[in-house]
Design a protein that fits this description.
It is a single chain. The protein is of the alpha+beta class and about 160 residues long. It is built from two helices and five strands; from the N terminus they run αβββββα. β2 and β3 form a beta hairpin. The protein is flat.
Length: about 160
């Protein structure tokens, strides 16, 4: 009888030592759920709603980076027109659509493109302003004659 009581006492002590470990696992799972699983499910629902809302005439971006205009919707397939003359029509599964957006086909004018600064080249800024430290270093380095090349031969 004493052995039975001793066995039950040791089993209860073993369960009590496991409770903090189980609590740590439960807290870890809750944190994992709220940081990873729940946001991923939310993104999946938003993507599925966007893919189900595609209608004729929408511009779509596919997962391979190609833009196209939806010509027809048949079940889970979209008939997408590619190209500028709309002569290429390819059936694509609805789940291959990443976003509903129209491509930016506008061309930038010359004024909008950034020009390189004028003083980036040695010599162009000598008349307008003083030499900066890097230009001075290059001029001094270039004036030295008889400098050895990395290949062991002397330069003339």
């Amino acid at each position: 009888m004493f052995n039975v009581l001793l066995d039950t006492a040791t089993e209860q002590a073993g369960m009590e030592s496991m409770l903090p470990l189980l609590a740590v696992y439960a807290v870890f799972f809750v944190i994992l759920y709220f940081l990873m699983i729940r946001p991923q499910r939310k993104r999946q629902k938003e993507t599925a709603n966007m893919q189900n809302a595609i209608t004729n005439g929408d511009w779509v971006l596919l997962n391979n980076g190609m833009y196209g205009k939806v010509g027809n919707v048949v079940n889970d397939n979209l008939m997408i027109e590619f190209g500028t003359n709309r002569s290429i029509i390819i059936p694509v599964r609805r789940d291959q659509v990443v976003a509903k957006e129209e491509p930016d086909l506008s061309q930038k004018t010359i004024e909008e493109v950034e020009k390189a600064p004028e003083d980036a080249v040695i010599g162009n800024d000598l008349a307008e302003d003083q030499l900066d430290a890097y230009d001075q270093y290059l001029l001094e380095k270039g004036e030295k004659k008889g400098k050895k090349s990395p290949f062991g031969k002397k330069k003339n």
